[in-house]
C-alpha cells in the first residue's frame, strides 16, 4: 500500500513591518503599550499635556513648537520608556527636516528711554532777556530811592528840609532746615526675574502678555526679565539654571521635574517673596 502524501500548503510570508519600518511616533506608542502605560500616566510623569503626547505619537511635530522643545520632549519620553535617547533623536532628525533649523532667540522686550524735554532755542533767549530786563529795573529803582532830595534855590525859596530815609529793619535770618537724605534709587533688578545659566540649556519663558525668552542659552549667560506675572517656565536643563528675585534665590519646585528627567515645567504666580 503506497503512502499518501499530504498536500503542501504554501507558508504565509512574515509581516514585513518591523520596528525599523514604523515611524518614530508609532515606535514610541508601541513601547508605551508594551510597558502597559496609558497616555494619562505618561502625562503625569513627564508633566506634559495629553494633547502633546498624542501629537508626538502621531508624528505631528509642528504642533509642539520649536524643534528645540520637541527634542526635549522626545528625550524625556525616551528616558521614561527606556529607549536610547540618541536613537530617538536621530529618528526625529530624519523624520522632520525642520529639526535642523536653528532656533530664534527672543529677548526681553526693552523699554524705550524717556525723551528729555527740549526747550526751543528762541524761548530760551527770550527768557534770558526778560530776566536781564527785570534785573535792570530792580537796580534802577534802588538807585532812585537812595538819592538825596535836591535843594530848592532861588528867591523866595524855602530852606530845604532834608528828608530822613527810613530804612526798614533787617529781616530776621531764616533758619536753614537740612533736607532729608534722598532715598536710595531702586535697583534696576528690583521686582524682576533674573535667570542665570551655569550650564547650557534651552528655555521658554512667557508672562501674562506673551513670550519673554526662548531658545538655547549658552553657559554663563544671564537675563533680567520684566513683564507681568504669572510666568510660565520650561527649562530643558533645570539643574544648570539659577533663578532669583531681588537678589534672593528662587528654587525650582521639587515636583516640576519628572523622575530621571532634567526638564522642568512650572509657573510663578507672583514675584512677591
Question: Describe it for me?
Answer:
- The protein is an alpha+beta fold.
- The protein has six helices and eight strands; from the N terminus they run ααααααββββββββ.
- Among the domains are: 24-100, lambda repressor-like DNA-binding domains (434 Repressor (Amino-terminal Domain), Orthogonal Bundle), CATH 1.10.260; 193-268, no CATH class.
- It has helices at 24-34, 39-46, 50-57, 67-81, 85-95, 121-146, and strands spanning 193-197, 201-206, 211-217, 222-225, 231-235, 241-245, 248-249, 264-268.
- A four-stranded antiparallel sheet has the order 4-1-6-7, with no helix packed on it. A four-stranded antiparallel sheet has the order 3-2-5-8, covered by helices on one side.
- Helix 4 packs antiparallel against helix 5 (85-95).
State the gist of this model.
The chain is of the alpha+beta class and 273 residues long. 29% of the residues lie in helices and 14% in strands.
CATH level-1 class of the domain at 24-100:
Mainly Alpha
Distance between the termini: 100 Å
SS-based class: alpha+beta
Q: List how many beta strands DSSP finds.
A: 8
Largest sheet, in brief, is: 4 strands, antiparallel
CATH fold name of the domain at 24-100: 434 Repressor (Amino-terminal Domain)
Gross morphology is: elongated
Q: Name the CATH homologous superfamily of the domain at 24-100.
A: lambda repressor-like DNA-binding domains
Question: Which consecutive residue ranges, at least 5 long each, have pLDDT under 50?
Answer: 6-18, 110-117, 149-153, 156-161
Amino acid at each position: 500500500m503506497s503512502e499518501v502524501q499530504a498536500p503542501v500548503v504554501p507558508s504565509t510570508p512574515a509581516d514585513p513591518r518591523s520596528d525599523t519600518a514604523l515611524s518614530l511616533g508609532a515606535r514610541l506608542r508601541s513601547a508605551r503599550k508594551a510597558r502597559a502605560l496609558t497616555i494619562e500616566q505618561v502625562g503625569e510623569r513627564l508633566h506634559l499635556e495629553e494633547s502633546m503626547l498624542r501629537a508626538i505619537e502621531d508624528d505631528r511635530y509642528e504642533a509642539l513648537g520649536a524643534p528645540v522643545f520637541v527634542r526635549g520632549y522626545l528625550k524625556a519620553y525616551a528616558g521614561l520608556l527606556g529607549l536610547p535617547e540618541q536613537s530617538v533623536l536621530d529618528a526625529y532628525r530624519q523624520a522632520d527636516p525642520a529639526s535642523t533649523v536653528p532656533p530664534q532667540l527672543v529677548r526681553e522686550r526693552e523699554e524705550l528711554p524717556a525723551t528729555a524735554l527740549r526747550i526751543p532755542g528762541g524761548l530760551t533767549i527770550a527768557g534770558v532777556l526778560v530776566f536781564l530786563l527785570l534785573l535792570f529795573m530792580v537796580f534802577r529803582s534802588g538807585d532812585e530811592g537812595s538819592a538825596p532830595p535836591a535843594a530848592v534855590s532861588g528867591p523866595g525859596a524855602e530852606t530845604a528840609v532834608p528828608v530822613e530815609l527810613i530804612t526798614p529793619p533787617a529781616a530776621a535770618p531764616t533758619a536753614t532746615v537740612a533736607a532729608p537724605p534722598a532715598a536710595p534709587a531702586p535697583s534696576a533688578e528690583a521686582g524682576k526675574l533674573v535667570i542665570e545659566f551655569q550650564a547650557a540649556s534651552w528655555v521658554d519663558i512667557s508672562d501674562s502678555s506673551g513670550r519673554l525668552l526662548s531658545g538655547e542659552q549658552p553657559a554663563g549667560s544671564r537675563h533680567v526679565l520684566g513683564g507681568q506675572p504669572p510666568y510660565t517656565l520650561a527649562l530643558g536643563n533645570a539643574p544648570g539654571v539659577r533663578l532669583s528675585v531681588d537678589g534672593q534665590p528662587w528654587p525650582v519646585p521639587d515636583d516640576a521635574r519628572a523622575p530621571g528627567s532634567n526638564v522642568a515645567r512650572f509657573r510663578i504666580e507672583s514675584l512677591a517673596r
